[in-house]
UniProtKB/TrEMBL annotation:
Gene3D superfamilies: Glutaredoxin. It comes from the Bacteria. This is Glutaredoxin family protein. PROSITE patterns: GLUTAREDOXIN_2. Pfam families: Glrx-like. InterPro entries: Glutaredoxin-like (IPR008554), Thioredoxin-like_sf (IPR036249). It comes from Halobacillus salinus.
């Protein structure tokens, strides 16, 4: 089972793109996905404010600059 967490905020087109990208993997991989709105947590907002979307796949974080189809696929099992 793959555990994927996406850190995002409202009105974030890049966040929507990454969510759509992750949806492509849902049918081929066993994935439990959690979405966390950074605007609801001061520490997360401070940490990720200029970095969203950020995804954590099985404990490994990727920020928006390193998220693409292959970087996600290489971390799934």
């Amino acid at each position: 089972m793959n555990h994927v967490t996406i850190f995002l905020k409202n009105n974030c087109p890049l966040c929507d793109e990454v969510k759509s990208l992750l949806d492509l993997f849902m049918k081929d991989y066993a994935i439990v996905m959690e979405e966390i709105d950074i605007e609801k947590d001061e520490k997360l907002l401070e940490k990720y404010f200029l970095e969203v979307p950020v995804i954590r796949i099985n404990g490994e974080e990727l920020d928006y600059r390193s998220i693409d189809y292959f970087s996600i696929e290489n971390r799934l099992h």
